[in-house]
Amino acid sequence: MATGARKAVYPLFQLGGPQLRIFRPNFFMLAVRPGVPQPEDTVQFRVSMEMTKVDIKNYLEKIYNVPVAAVRTRIQYGANNKRNHKNQRVKKPDYKVAYVQLGQGQTFQFPNLFPEKEQDSETHSFDDFKNKYMEREKQRQKGDPRRGGVPDWFGL
Fold this sequence. Notes:
The chain is of the alpha+beta class. It is about 20% helix and about 20% strand.
């Protein structure tokens, strides 16, 4: 062993290695629009099955700086009523749903991603054209009143 080489000295082992810990979660959280109306301070997420309530709270507070008052979770079981081409039952996977109640005074509202557009003159003119065309087609396809309700194809 050369005299210039030094032996690496590592710090004492501590449970969890707090000095070496980097928080990079391998989880996902998907905010979903609830099927039933929720209070304004509650957000519904679809989360990984391995996440606990504490994980969810830490995830939101540490990464997104969102104050969390309470977390409730449930497991939604997947449907088991479909069959494949071999008549075998096919089950959709289960997933975990988390209801997060935000801190005091915080509210959440889903953004309107597809707002109703105001009709401009170009689309308005197209709608007028379409309506006129449909009226003409109805008049053209209307039967002859002198035939007494007998269709056109039934004749001489």
